Amino acid sequence: MDNQLDHRGYWDGDTDTNNMGSRSLESMAAERFSRRQTIMGSLQASVAAFLGTTLLAACRDDDDAVAPTVSAGQDATVSAGRTVTLTGSATGAGAAAWAQTGGPAVTLSGTGETVTFLSPGVAQNTPLTFTYGAAGGGVTATDSTVITVTPAQLAFTAVPKSQSDVVVVPAGYNVTVLTRTGDPIAAGVPAYRNDGTDTNFAQRIGDHHDALAYFGLNAAGNKDLASSTRGLIVQNHENINNQYLHVNGSTNVSTGPRPEGEAIKEIEAHGVSVTEIRDTGNRQWTWVQDSRYNRRLTPNTPTVMRGPARGSDLLRTAYSPAGTDGRGTINNCANGVSVWSTVVTCEENWAGYFRRPSSGAASDNANRSVGEQVSLRRYGVTSSTGSYAWSTVNSQNSIFRKWDARATAADATQDYRNEPNQYGWVVEFDQYNPASAPRKRTALGRFGHEGAWFGLPVAGRPIAVYMGDDSRGEYLYKFVSRENWLAADATASDPLAIGDKYLDQGTLYAARFNADGTGQWLPLVFGQTPNRPATGADPEYVFASQADICVNARLAGDAVRATPMDRPEWTGVNPANGEIYLTLTNSNATLRPISGTDAANPRHYNDPKGATEPVPDPATPPQPTNQYGNPNGHIIRLRETDDNGAGTTFRWDIYLFGADNVDADPVNVNISGLDDSNSFSSPDGLWFSRPTNPAGQGRPLMWLQTDDGAILDRTNNQMLACFPGRVGDGGARTITNRAQNGTTRQQATIVGANATPATVKRFLVGPQECELTGVDSTPDGRTLFAGIQHPGEAGDATRPTSNWPQSQAGTNSGRPRSGLVAITKADGGIVGI
Q: Please, which of 87, 313, 541, 743 could form a disulfide with 532 given CB 3.0 to 4.6 Å?
């Protein structure tokens, strides 16, 4: 690099040696003085522009001054997410400073000769220029250095497959267990004994930790979305391990009658929690039991119905004869964060909680219209008792009665026949306002919501929300707001009113994936959506209103012939390019036989389970269990035409295929080329790193979690870190599928680029029998949060099959509990890169 010294000496030499002309000494001196002032003025303005006034304060007008000698050090190359130290040196200087003079802006920390910055996330090699300037004796000197930032790398050694009973992370990382099932989140609530005697889950952390999100607080305890040291964790509690909640497990759980105390505990252990957490120093996290923000949403929390179905006859119940209010949220699985920073929590497998026999003497078909019966069957409200049989409690209290969905009274305002229609929604609430009532956004449709992720906002365009329906053979949906996005709404003082603006009116769509890699969004709009044709024993279903379409979105998806998918779960949006990712967890031969594959769901194969387990008796080795269908799942991605979330067409390909790398057919099953460092099965949770730190910039890091039942004979469930490419980075492929009877069938599809250890790598493996659920980070990316759901789910109180989280600290005893973990890098760096 070149030293750029003050040039007065050189110019004086030119003047003194120029003997052309016959000017007087006086004129020559006047020109010299004028030119020096101009040059010094220009230099000082330039220095002021990039170094400020620090150096200029040390300058003086002295023709005999000697310029300092400076050095900015050598050029260097670093990857994104690294802390870079710039050290300059100067002799003969009274003041010195650094400034950035080229490339994407970064924040310099420190003063004088040494400063640091965090290298930003980039998509390609990107030079950043920094200038070191020093002043002395009225003279300023500068020198520059170039730091070239390369795209982020998966800077950790892949975690091997594991069947241990701890959370395993790479070397150089730490795991802190935060809130666990039953932990108190209100003043005066005693610590959890974990022996089945605990009560009051309305003020304790719920069970089955699922999707989560972090929201910052400043030092004063007020909303600050940029804070990475204090904040709120909002976490879903999808279900329960009831065998561990009670002293001896549940009583009469299959038949009833249920004891009231047990039922209350189980009901309250569902829902959502809001808990304040704090970094007590160096990313040592703990939760605040008595925070004013701590809150539980349970199946008993009052809610408000919004959107087209509000006030509809379909929502009228004994609790809300007007059909405008509801009570509670349940089976909260995935989530989303709105563009205006509220939480949306999503109700997934709610249908099974209701008692409503569909046949036999206890059936209420005689009191139901044919259309009602079609709807109830389509959503699976057909249980003779309902999950956990809560309606069998010998009490007239409506918190138990509402789970009995039979039509037994004169009309819907006198019983709970419509209570199932109160569930299956996207639920928005303000995590910073514990007094506010959650709002159920009916315009976004009713189904088994696995999540609701918002597309990238563009001023002047509508907002788009992407949603999977988590059941085999269901659809991908999109909601597009009627209102165009106004950037000022992101910081509005009443965020739920902003939700009213964008989420209560708009257009709901279901997706159709074409064989050529294109797709359409099919509007589910009353007057445009045809009747759902007769199917099997079900007669034709005639929609009566937009409220009917929203309540019966699955029937509307059937009517427009959307593409049935292999269990659509989480959606995620790449913050760098807006592409949408959808995890498709798995399917089986019953729901998708070999003749039922299509380009977007192309595989049918067998992945035998149990063949690798130890053989206790060589004379009678265990036989592997066949798993025909698509037991390992895949991830599909799409790009909206013209990157317009309000559009009705898109392109798609399959980003990754799950597979067992050990013995899977590398041509027709392990299509993505997975190896021992990244093989996975049953993709579920999916989340992109925040664009507020280098992991979410340039080439954003994507986190992938599994809910595996197919290769658990090799490893517990896991979380992987990925650098995905873009739609179209692969090509066409024809797969040879094979059925159990030996028949084969060709299926054409479109695949993404192969995985490599540089683009997909196993980061974490969970404890025994758990599912990895929920992921977010602090804005600075230095703490990653993840949910550990139902460890030891196959055991019971007398024989638990996991001891986590006690086992994380080396204690291999006690009942297992779901929990939240904080993962940090020992050197304080950004997790994953």
A: 541
The angle at the Cα of 666, spanning 664 to 672, to the nearest 5 degrees, equals: 105
| Bridge partner list, 150 | 79
pLDDT tens digit sequence for 388-444: 999 999 999 999 999 999 999 999 999 999 999 999 999 999 999 999 999 999 999
137-141, 452-456, 776-780, range with the lowest pLDDT? 137-141
φ and ψ at residue 698, rounded to 5 degrees: 70, -85
Whole-angstrom CA distances from 574 to 453, 636, 702, 725, 800 are: 11, 13, 8, 10, 40
pLDDT at 618: 62
User: Three-state SS for 400?
Assistant: helix
Distances (CA, A) of 110 to 115, 212, 370, 587: 5, 35, 73, 55
Beta strand segments in 631-742, E: 634-640, 649-657, 683-688, 702-706, 718-722, 731-738
How many other CB atoms are there within 10 angstroms of residue 206's CB atom? Answer: 30
pLDDT above 80 (res 24): no
Nearest by Cα to 428 from 507, 337, 522: 337
Query: In terms of DSSP bridges, do strands 634-640 and 731-738 run parallel, antiparallel, or are they unpaired?
Result: unpaired
What is the mean pLDDT of the segment spanning 88-93?
90
pLDDT digits (tens, 9 = 90+) for 299-358: 999 999 999 999 999 999 999 999 999 999 999 999 999 999 999 999 999 999 999 998
Query: Sheet harboring 702-706: ordered strands across?
Result: 683-688, 702-706, 718-722, 760-765
Interaxial angle between packed helices 25-51 and 8-17, expressed in degrees from 0 to 180 and rounded to the nearest 10:
160
Provide the residue type at 27 as one letter: S
Q: The pTM is what?
A: 0.92
Q: Domains along the chain?
A: 8-150 (2.60.40.10), 173-350+423-524+560-784+800-825 (no CATH)
* Omega prior to 151 cis, within 30 of 0: no
Q: Quick one: tokens of 152?
A: 């982020």
